[in-house]
Amino acid sequence: MKKTLSVIMLATLVSAAALTACESGGAGKEASTTPPSAAANTQDSGTKPVSAATATTAVPTDFKQSPYFDGKSLPPVKERLPKEPKLTNELPKDYLNYEIGTYGGTLRTVRQDPVNDSDLFIINNEPLVNSPGVLGEEVTPNLVKSYKVSDDQKEFTLTLREGLKWSDGQPVTIQDVKFAVEDVLLNKELTPTLPLWLKSASDANGQPFAFQAIDDYTFKIGFDQPYGGFLIQLAVQGWRGYNELLKPKHFLQQYHVKYTPLDKLEPAIKEAGFASGEWVKLFTAKDVLNNEITYPKAIGFPVLTPYIQVKSGDKIEFERNPYYFKVDAAGNQLPYIDKLQSTLVQNAEMVNLKILAGEVDHSYEYVSIPKVPLLKENEAKGGYKVYINNLHRTANDIHLNLTYDDPAWRQVVRDVRFRKALNLALDKKEIADTVFYGFAKPSTIEETTRNLQEANKLLDDIGLKKGADGFRAGPDGKRFTIPFEVSSAFADFGTLGQLVVEQWKQIGLDVTLKQIDSTLWTNRNKANELKATIMFTPGPVQWSRQEWGQNIWAPLWDQWWNSGGKQGEEPPQEAKDLFQTIFKLRELSLKDALVKRDDIRKNIGANYWYFIHSENIAAPVAVNAKIGNISDKGWGIGQNFAGEQWFFRK
After folding, report:
1. Which of 35, 311, 358, 647 could covalently link to 317 via disulfide, CB atoms 3.0 to 4.6 Å apart?
2. Where does the record place Basic and acidic residues bias (predicted)?
C-alpha cells in the first residue's frame, strides 16, 4: 500500500512541478545601488501584467503609487521614495520571469501561534544588504545604496539611501545608526552582552566591532581580524533584518534615559506596569526587534518594511507602507498587494480545510507532502495552485546528546565507532520513501549504504554485548537505552522516530520514542536534559546559516564555544576542529567561503556527530492561483522574501 501511495505521490508532484515550471518561466569589490534584477518594461501598473524579459534594468525616474493612497493627503510618491530607490532583486534572474504587477488586494495567511506568522515575518524581513534567493552566493545592497569591503576583509563601509524614510515619514540618517550602536548596543544596561556576530569573526574571544560615522549617510564597521562573512551575517544569518544596527531614534529616544530624564519617564514606566526606575524594561517594551514585527507592540512603531501592522488579535492586519523604498522597473512603488491578513487557527488540519475552501492565499510550510494529492485534486475548486519548491533546511535530523550528564551514556555515544554503527543501521532509502514519499534523497554527507553486519561488529568491538533478551548492555552492565523525546509540533518527527526505533532495534539496541509539547522540548534541550531527539538544521542545505545542530547534539560544548570557555564544558579536540571549521568560514570572503564550506560536510561525514539522513527535500506550498511573480524555483523561503513582488492578476 505504501509503495502504491508513493507512486501516486510521485506522479502528482512531478505533474505539479512541470506545470509550475512551464508557467513560471525563467532562463536557466564594491557593490552599488543598481544590482542585477529581473528587468521589466515601463508599462503602467494599472494595465495587464507584462513580461519583463525584454526590457532594461535601469532604475526609473518617474514613479507611480497604489490607488490605495489616493486622497490620503500624502506627499507625492517621488518625495516619499529615496533619491535612489531600490530596484527589486529579491530572486536570482533565472528563478523568475518577472512581471510588472497590478496594485490591490489582501493577502490572507493563517497561523497556529497567537502572535507569530512565518509568512508575514519573512515578507517583512528587510536586511541592510540582501542575498537574492537567500542563497548566500551573492550579496547586493538593500536598505543601503552601496557597500565597500577592505581588501583585508576587516572594514565594511555602508552608505544609506539618501531620502530613505521611516513609515511615519521621518528621514533615516546616520543619527539612527548612531542611536542603535552607541545608545543601545553599547549601553550596558540595555545590552549587557554584545551579540557574538558583532565581535571579530563572530568569535566569543574576539574583540568588539569598531564604529565610525563618516557623514550623514555613511558609516564604517571595523574588526581587528578578517571577517569576510560579516556581509552574510547582515544578509542571511538569523534573519536579523536591519533592527540591530538601525533604529528610529525620533521614536525611541522618548523612552531612553539619555534623552528623556528618568523623572519624565516615570509616568510611562508606571503605566506600563513596571517598578519605579525600570526605564530599561520600558524601552525594551517599546522597541520592536525583527522577530517581533507581528507582536501587538509593533502597531505604531516606525518601520522600513513593505507593510505596517495596524491590527492585532486573532486577525493580525498589515497595510502597505507609504514610504517603502523599493520600486519595479516601471517605476511602480512596491509592494503591489495593499494588505496582509493573518488568521489564527487551532491546528494544521484546519489550515488544510481553509486552503481547500479557497480561504488562504499563501500557506507557508503548512502543506505537508502527504496532503499534496488531495490539494492537487481540488486546485480548480479552491482557486489555488500547489507549487513544489525545495526546503531551505533539513527536515528532521537524528541527534544523540553527546554532553548529557551520564558517564555510561557519554562513554558509549562519544565513541565514533558507535555513531558509525548507528549510521550503518539506518535504511535511508526507506526513510526517504516513508517520511517524504520519495521526494527527498538520502544525504551523501554520511555513508548511505546500510550494512547491519558491519554495524553489529562495531558494537561488539566496543563491548556492547547482547543479553539473553537480545538487547545490548552498556559499560555499567545495564541495558543501554536510547530514549527519543521529540516535539509533537511536527508530525514527521514521529514518523521518522518510529522508523529509527525499528531500524536500530535490529542491531540489538533498546530504543524508545516519546512525543512531548514543543515548549517542553525547548526547555529540556536548553537544560541539557534530552538524551536523543529529532530536529531540523539549516547548515547542510543553507551553508551561510552555519548552524549544524551543535546546540542539540552537544549543548554544553556549544555553550563553551560561544561563551569563550566561560560556560558549558570544553569539547574534545575533534569537536573543536569542527567548530573551528564552521566558524572559520566567517573570516573568509564570500568567494573563499563557497570553496571551503565542503570542509564541514567532510568533518561530519568522518565523525557522525549527528545523522543527516535526507537532502533535496520538497517544500510544497498552496498559493492563490491569481497571484503572480511566484515560481517553483529555489527554496520556498526565498520566494517569501520576494513577497513585495507578488500581485493579484485581474
Report:
1. 311
2. 77-86
Q: Is 528 exposed, middle or buried (0-12, 13-18, 19+ CB in 10 A)?
A: middle
How confident is residue 57, by pLDDT bands cut at 50, 70 and 90? low
Q: What is the mean pLDDT of residues 104-126?
A: 93
Give ∠ CA 543-546-552 in degrees, rounded to 5: 125
Residue 495 clears pLDDT 90, i.e. is over it: yes
Nearest residue to 45 (alpha-carbon basis) of 340, 339, 329: 329
**Pairing between β-strand 140-141 and β-strand 129-130 as defined by DSSP bridges:** antiparallel
Taking domain 129-247, whether its CATH number is 3.90.76.10 is answered by yes
Contact 326, 85 (CB under 8 A): yes
Cα–Cα distance, 149 to 152 (Å, whole number):
8
Q: How many residues does the chain have?
A: 650
Phi, psi of 393 (to 5 degrees): -150, 180
- Does the predicted model carry a pTM greater than 0.90? no
Q: Cβ neighbours of residue 24 under 8 Å, at least 6 residues apart?
A: 96, 97, 630, 631, 632, 633
The domain spans of the chain are 2-116+300-390+619-648, 129-247, 397-615
Q: Decide which of 52 and 222 is more confident.
A: 222
Confidence bin at 24 (pLDDT 50/70/90): very low
Domain 397-615 CATH class label: alpha beta
Q: What is the 3-state secondary structure (H, E, C) of 617-649?
A: CEEEEEEECCEECCCCCCEHHHHHCCHHHCEEC
Determine the Cα–Cα distance for residues 169 and 65; give it in Å rounded to an integer. Answer: 15
Helix (H/G/I), strand (E/B), else coil: 141: strand
Q: Residue 95 in contact with residue 634, Cβ under 8 Å?
A: yes
CATH of domain 2-116+300-390+619-648: 3.40.190.10
For range 289-310, the mean pLDDT = 96
Is 88 in a helix, a strand, or coil? Answer: coil
Q: Cα(314)–Cα(427) distance, rounded to whole angstroms?
A: 43
Closest CA to 388 of 123, 615, 624, 636: 636
Average of per-residue pLDDT across 146-159: 96
pLDDT (tens digit, 9 = 90+) per residue, 63-112? 999 999 999 999 999 999 999 999 999 999 899 999 999 999 999 999 98
Alpha-carbon distance values, 499 to 432, 481, 561 (Å): 11, 16, 33
| Collapsed DSSP state (helix, strand, coil) of residue 335 | coil
Q: Beta-carbon neighbour count of residue 448 at 10 Å?
A: 15
Q: How far is CA 370 from CA 9, 16, 57, 228, 492, in A?
A: 8, 14, 41, 42, 10
Mean pLDDT of 535-552: 86
